Fold these 2 entries.
Entry 1:
Amino acid sequence: MDIDKLKKLQEEVNAGRGITCVKYIINCLENNEIEQAQKVYQWDGDKIRAYPFVQQWFNENMGCRTHLKMNCQDALCITLNKYNEQRINNSRP
Ligand SMILES: [Zn+2]
């Protein structure tokens, strides 16, 4: 799990202020409190969705928000992942 990459990604959003719940999750991960990090991701994850590159990191490292599964095949999770990929593709020049 590349925590430094997550740090960099979240520092780039919100006019450099980052995302409060992601900062907390980073703190948990650095202290090896994986379960707490997962809980915050599930409770406060709606705030992450606005930032597609940060959301992508979560998809790849912690899985979907609802089930915490990588490559989750749940219909809603597939839809959310596709939507996130679209937003990433659209943001590329
Ligand atoms: Zn899922």
Entry 2:
Amino acid sequence: MPIELVKPCKEFLPSYLEALSEGTHCNMALGAFADESVDEISRDPDEYLKRINDTSPRVVELPDGSSYTIADHALFWLVDGTRYLGSVSLRFAGDKEVIEEFGGHIGVAIRPGLLNKGYGVRAATLAWQLAGAYFKERGINPIFVSCNPTNTASKRLIEHNGGKLVQEKSDAFGTGPSLIYVIDLCALEQQNKNS
Ligand SMILES: CC(C)(COP(=O)(O)OP(=O)(O)OC[C@H]1O[C@@H](n2cnc3c(N)ncnc32)[C@H](O)[C@@H]1OP(=O)(O)O)[C@@H](O)C(=O)NCCC(=O)NCCS
């Protein structure tokens, strides 16, 4: 089965709900604006899908009381033909502080039952490709990504995709320590062509 990124849709909703019952998995920085429980989603699945596909600006409230706007964003599901495997959140534009000093341009989360099987690297590679075209079109390069220093899987995933550590924050907006990386999309594209 080919692994691909698709917009959240009815076809994969049953598998997504099954993934939610495996435990919390969307704990990426900034979330993915898709935190409803199985019960909440089941009450009105169409409304849920409509909401999470809505790319209009969202305000993010952070634990230190500050609030920022993610002006342009999109959520994708990583699927393999029948199963929901994980989520990818792209934040194209918004308040610079929250993107460059905390949440980053890209967030990836793999469903709990499929962790540590290589899906994260696959999702991130597809996300970087997808975002690459969008950012290039708008002249945005490099992009920023972040993770908690204790999150080894996320650190490895970022390093696999050309991430260079540029900042270590002891506390990012009240959420605790955070590592900030930059990724040069042009260099990454070249590296992928050569490999
Ligand atoms: C980060 C995350 C997406 C990685 O996905 P994954 O499918 O489990 O990762 P992969 O199987 O692709 O492995 C990626 C690397 O991390 C390593 N890894 C995976 N799980 C690990 C763990 N629990 N401890 C240490 N290393 C781990 C793998 O060995 C691999 O490194 P390598 O290729 O150098 O051997 C996943 O852990 C996740 O969804 N976490 C919750 C959300 C999150 O923290 N997102 C990141 C912030 S935006």
